[in-house]
Amino acid sequence: MTESKKIHFLYRFQFENGTEKSFDVVLDEKSLELVRDEPKTKPEWTKLKFSQCENCPLSDDVEYCPVAVSLAGLVESFSDCVSYEAATVIVETRERTFLKKTTVQKGLSGIIGIYMATSNCPILSKMRPMTRFHLPFANSFETFFRSISSYITAQLLLMRRGETPDWDLKGLQEIYKEVNTVNKGMTARLHMATEKDANINAVVILHSFGDGISYFIESGLTELEPMFSAILNKNESSEQEP
Amino acid sequence: MNERILVVDDEESLRLSLKFKLKSAGFDVEVAVDGEDALEKLKARPADAVLLDINMPRMSGIETLTMIRQQYPQTEAIMLTGFADFSTAIECLKIGAKDYLVKPVDTTELVTRLRSLVRSRSTERALQEVHQEYLGFLTEDVLEPLKKIQSLLDQLARPQSDSEKERKKALANAREAADTIEAKVKVLARFAKEASETAEGSGEPSAMQLTEQLKGIRQGSSR
Fold it and tell me: Do A204 and B16 touch (CB under 8 A)?
């Protein structure tokens, strides 16, 4: 049996004082599940019942929150970091290398986003396809666009299965509502696990994408229309042809 | 006109999501990337309220709040933080922030608090206008004519000082001044009675209505 391929996102944080922290996030290429060794010790705040998310569907026999366990090492490493601390963040993937002089919170939000979506939380798993096309340091519009594109791809696949697709993206807004409840729950956990605000603000950034997506679907998408004029005005241009 | 809110946060996605949410709630929203930018934006155009992140590079939210309270006392502030800290919250409230919210902020809660904040601020401003108008009424429309009457009475009291024609003119002037006061006070009394009945019934007359009424009385119209 052949071992399935792995996807690596190697995040390196280079700080102004010359120190560096690096995290290699490894995913199974097919399932996009996080590949990690089970930690020997798990902090108290990773227990499922410790500030459990309001919408958590996991049963009582699950002892630890899978998201919290995935994040524990990273959170501990950045516990004493201030959100706006400057860092050069380098992200190496199989295809390319990204580099940005940014803030710790911005770099962290990318890596935390991958951990959260791939850690087997039943709610966050719906975000998993986006990790395959993870874009480090993405701004809000890039994230909205990726998110909508990913959801529409899923709807197309549903349609091919003979099911009813959700072209209005109502389901996407519902997903983000649930995801944001988890994000909120996670920030509550992180308050107990961290000394400064970098980790928490990184999750708050993820939460802000979820907060903005409804408005983007309602109003922001229209602003993108000119970009799609060649496709949207296809009939007009063909009528003009001799 | 919509209430103007300035969102100050060093993180783009947070600025954008707050801008989206507050715009859809009907506010006029502008954003600033840090404290210095916020002060520049306020200088160019004042805001009714600022949403101010506490942990920001260069100038912290608390430093920015201090400057805003000094330079733009009319602008209210709500502080936002990712890391809840009781002593910082107290410090912000002491400096003059009206509220302190922990991120991620619940949209409905934020909009409710902002509306309540700008509403109480508008009410305060409207009551100040009523006060000014009432003061103007008392000094210009009551006290000055009364002084005129007193002066005319003094003139009449002086023995043999004026001719009969001048005495008649002074009496007519005094009468006119007294009639003017009486007319204006009567309108004010009628309005006060109606306002009192409105308050007992469907609801209080707004401060803006009170100001308009007082202006009407002072300009000589009886509504």
Answer: no
Distance CA A83, CA B80 (A): 14
Q: Does A147 touch chain B (CB under 8 A)?
A: no
Architecture of domain B4-105: 3-Layer(aba) Sandwich (3.40)
pTM passes above 0.90: no
**CA–CA distance, A75 with A64 (Å, rounded to integer):** 16
Q: What is the C-alpha to C-alpha distance for residues A92 and A104, in angstroms, rounded to an integer? A: 17
C-alpha separations of A43 from A68, A87, B204 in Å: 9, 27, 58
User: Range of A153's domain?
Assistant: 6-228
Q: Does B122 touch chain A (CB under 8 A)?
A: no
The amino acid that residue B187 corresponds to is: V
Radius of gyration of chain A (CA): 20
Is residue B1 classed exposed, middle or buried when 0-12, 13-18 and 19+ CB atoms within 10 A define those classes? exposed
DSSP at A105: H
The reply to whether residue B55 touches residue A180, judged by beta carbons under 8 angstroms, is: no
Peptide bond preceding B57: is omega within 30 degrees of 0, i.e. cis?
no
**pLDDT tens digits, residue range B152-189?**
888 888 776 668 888 888 888 888 888 888 888 888 88
**How many CB pairs (< 8 A) connect A and B?**
82
Chain A contact for B26, CB < 8 A? no
Which tens digits make up the pLDDT trace of A136-158?
999 999 999 999 999 999 999 99
Please tell me the distance in Å from A16's CA to the nearest CA on chain B: 14
Chain-chain contact of A211 with B21 (C-beta, under 8 angstroms)? yes
In this prediction the ipTM stands at 0.85
- Every domain of chain B and the residues it spans: 4-105, 124-218
